[in-house]
């Protein structure tokens, strides 16, 4: 049985049954680290200066839905913190837009199937169009 060290956690090689799960470690350290940065990048006022073209926006949205599916609690926490930092009238619009992002076109926020990702990308395009016009802090 060949042993492999992975972030100081001992696991067996892929050719043999694993005795310790690697995914929780990957989940926490590698996969979820980008989520807060991506959300802030999409929502912060300086992101308007980036002027993401539709192909970049689509790639961004595809990556974002994958990360949201992995940890929806973190997604909601980050979005809530961002909304709370805005003025009252902007908060109302942001809440409505987030709800639309997560529900329009019957998007399933628990799925990364191709059809669902396409729905989320379309929702994300509309979301960004509305958010870019807001006076965000």
What labels describe this entry?
137 residues, 2 strands, 61% helix, globular, disordered N terminus, two-stranded antiparallel ribbon, mainly alpha
N- and C-termini, Cα separation: 55 Å
- What portion of residues belong to β-strands? 5-15%
Number of domains: 1
Low-confidence stretches: 1-22
Sheet/helix structural class: mainly alpha
Order of helices and strands: EEHHHHHH
What would you note in describing this structure?
- The chain contains six helices and two strands, in the order E-E-H-H-H-H-H-H.
- The protein has one domain.
- With 137 residues, the protein is mainly α.
- The radius of gyration is 18 Å and the shape is globular.
- Strand 1 (3-6) and strand 2 form a beta hairpin.
- A two-stranded antiparallel sheet has the order 1-2.
Layout of secondary structure:
Layout: E1 3-6, E2 9-12, H1 23-31, H2 34-43, H3 54-70, H4 72-84, H5 88-103, H6 114-132
Antiparallel strand pairs: 1-2
Helix pairs in contact: 2-3, 2-4, 3-4, 3-6, 5-6
